[in-house]
UniProtKB/TrEMBL annotation:
Ion transport in keyword set: no
Domain spans labelled HTH tetR-type: 23-82
Top-level lineage group: Bacteria
Protein's organism: Cellulomonas persica
PANTHER family named in the record: HTH-TYPE TRANSCRIPTIONAL REGULATOR BETI (PTHR30055:SF234), HTH-TYPE TRANSCRIPTIONAL REGULATOR RUTR (PTHR30055)
UniProt xrefs under InterPro entries: Homeodomain-like_sf, HTH-type_TetR-like_transc_reg, HTH_TetR, Tet_transcr_reg_TetR-rel_C_sf
Full protein name: TetR family transcriptional regulator
GO molecular function, one term: DNA-binding transcription factor activity
Keyword Hydrolase: no
DNA-binding region: 45-64
Bias-annotated ranges (Polar residues): 1-11
Amino acid sequence: MRMTEESQASRQAPRAPLRRDAERNRERIVAAARELYAEHGLGVGFNEVAHRAGVGVGTVYRRFADRAELLDAALEVPLQDVLAVADDATAAPRAWDGLVLLVTHMTDLLVENMGVRDAALGGHDELLPDVARSVADVADALFVRAHEEGDLRDGATSQDVPMILWMVTELAKHATDVAPDAYRRYATILLDGLRAGPDTGPLPGALEIDDVRAISRSWADWSARARPRTA
């Protein structure tokens, strides 16, 4: 019996470093994915994550069953920031103030992290559906209240919010080396275009939710194709 225990101990002893190595590899994979998603959006694949992490792609698959699991690990903190902004916007005493907070603070978050942009705006809503749905629900509620309070022009809808955020964050990508804060100016201009005023006329036809989803997916796919590839 003692020999059996000793032989078992001798076989098990070398496994501890493997477990530590596995945990280190997982941390490297999550860190690499977090960087790549922030830089390029959610179109990044396991091969690129493995290359950045310095591990084999098989190691990524062993640690994470699918892309959704890796996304949950890599984007947990920034997505909590998105939901916190949504909560703050909902709590604003006047809906227009909540809408301004939602767009301006969300823009700052999305400019810093292209992966969060894709998640929050539904560019890959098959991967993180709850995030896009939560943001959309908050925008819907704010628009209903803001119309009731008389602060939104006729024809403005909550479907305008993701389009504004796509436009402004795309501008930010191209203005980074020239005028990194320029996006804030245009976010303000676009927001003012939603506000009711004595001289504002009716807006052209609004987008439907399916239109917004299709545009968001197309925009996210285009961004993924346009980005530099890992060598």
